[in-house]
Amino acid sequence: MTELIAEIPAWFPKASEFLTFSPELAWVATLCLIMLAPLAIGRDARITAGLAIVGIAVTAFFTFKVMGIVSAEGPQTGLTPDRTGGMLIADNLSLFFKLFLLAFLVGVSILWMSVSANQEDDAPEFFVLMVGSALGMSLMVSTQNILMMIIAIEFASLPSYAIVGFNKQKRIAAEASLKYMIFGSVSAAVMLYGASLIYGFFGTLDVAQIALNAGPVLEAGGANRLLVGLGMFCLFVGIAFKISAVPFHFWCPDAFQGAKTEVTAWLSVASKAAGLLLLMRLAHVFCMYAGAEVLHGVAIVIAIFATITCTVGNLSAYKQTSTKRMLAYSSIAHAGYMMAAAAILVDANKVESFSAISAVLAYVVVYMLMNLGAFGVVALLESKNGGDDSITAFAGLGWKTPVLAIPMLFCLVSLVGIPPFAGFITKWYLLAALGETGVGLYWALAIVIVINTLISLWYYMRVVVQMFLRESDKPATDVPMSGALLVNVCGVLLIVLLIFSNPLKNRSDKYSAGLFAASPTALAGEGAKDSLAQSSPQAGGTESLENNHGG
Questions:
Q1: Strands 89-90 and 76-77, sheet pairing
Q2: Taking a C-beta distance cutoff of 8 angstroms, is the pair 512, 361 a contact?
């Protein structure tokens, strides 16, 4: 005990570390401000939303400051003892995702003010849950430690369960929240079991150290290979739940239909992007240390999940009559497209190639615009017609309310991946990343994506047909100015990003190349580096593991 107390000063973070992780601290300060503000200024919805946006702006300011530090000094760790390694990481990938989340959070806040600000007095609770889930998602992409990963996933999930059931007047919202929570609890339990297996075998939760020793174990085969493989698969289950990968997707359509539409928009993009980028980070670390040849089986597993996910998502969307459920299955399909890129990272010796993660970064930016625009139109229409989100509710919209129909058309066509919209170019980047490997597995994945793109065309066009080829006796929809501006900006940006696709690609290349420029050991503290060296095969660490576990 005396030794532990004596080490406390060494554990306390340095001032520079507080600056490095100032965006997270600003997020926490925003949470506290939103919770305490009602005691002083009441529960006015628009004031609360304004405070949230101010907090987002401050967080963005600190994020840009940290970008300067990372550009000058490389990836940083901090706020944790050296011996814990990369529990918290500030690098180009994590900083990109912070800015992505902040921009998306502003868009969702504007949508909420357009459709819900005048209908409820629970604005403080709503924004606390939204900002809290965003903080958890940010932490998910800012770690390579399994313990921190699980904590971050739960930090993101718990507010999400509550916010899905936020509409207390709808029974379906409570039902959706309960289903979401049950699935989330089971996936968390499976993840914890996997973490216990991994820790019991390797004696560490740092992914770089695990990957370094996992390669020889997986190559050797036997019971140890089965044990490690089971632990890795259990961890994958938790990430697949956040992504809504098949067969861990059953919560998604019910949650999307039951939640408020602005919440649905948030979960359809932010949750999946966080899970996908976490998967990409872990795939990169394992490729760096475990060896691509050994992990060929892992690549096949991810490819199979990606194929099943996009196919089931698209086929299930066919029979939906609810627009929100249709877009829920659409989001599952798009998650499958992006999962395909993770398979590249753990196979074919792609350590130095960053085209896969670059394609995903560009894809999630455009996907944010497509979904924010599409769900924004659904929310605005739903708020004016008594909550009806059926596809037939769009009948005649193209002629009576073109200010909604035109951006909806742009977003749906972009979701298919047809020019002249940015969804086409980002899907092309993804297909190019698969094709440039020259490996049959990835060519097959590219063909699957093309076929699924053709399948998706039909159900997206059902909405377009209703808007422009069906008549309705309903009057034109009165649209709030802020909401109309939001969805039309999303639609216009989908054209702009196709015309000026090079800046998007260059930025994506920069942030992905920044991740691959530093190996995971560069992100570890001194204590973790020593431990990593001791556990390397050259130091005899693998033989020691095999002796301890009957290898």
A1: antiparallel
A2: yes
Say how far apart CA 195 and CA 327 lie, in whole Å.
33
Interior angle at CA 361, CA 293 and CA 24, nearest 5: 105
pLDDT of 469-480, one tens digit each? Answer: 887 777 766 788
User: Under the phi-then-psi rule, with left for phi > 0, alpha for psi from -120 to 50, and beta for the rest, what region is 316?
Assistant: alpha
78 vs 32: CA distance, rounded Å:
23
The per-residue pLDDT for range 28-76, each reduced to its tens digit, is 999 999 998 888 887 888 888 889 999 999 999 999 999 888 887 777 7
Q: Which of 458, 280, 278 is closest to 358 using CA atoms? A: 280
Spatial separation of the C-alpha atoms in residues 166 and 164, rounded to whole Å: 6
- In whole angstroms, what is the distance from residue 369 CA to residue 180 CA? 25
Q: What is the per-residue pLDDT across 158-212, written as a single tens digit (0 to 9) for each?
A: 999 999 988 877 888 889 999 999 999 999 999 999 999 999 988 888 888 888 8
Name the residue among 483, 492, 513 with its Cα closest to residue 114.
483
Strand residues in 95-247 grouped as ranges (E):
none
Q: Which of 195, 285, 281 is closest to 238 using CA atoms?
A: 195
Residues 6+ apart with CB under 8 A from 244: 251, 252, 271, 272, 309, 331, 332, 335
Domain ranges of the chain: 15-548
Angle 61-63-66 (CA atoms, 0-180°, nearest 5)? 115
CA dist 71 and 510 (Å) reads: 11
Q: What is the identity of the amino acid at 139?
A: L
Contact 484, 380 (CB under 8 A): yes
Three-class DSSP category at 389? coil
Q: What angle do CA 451, 457, 462 make, to 5 degrees?
A: 150
Its pTM surpasses 0.70: yes
Nearest to 418 by CA among 495, 360, 481: 495
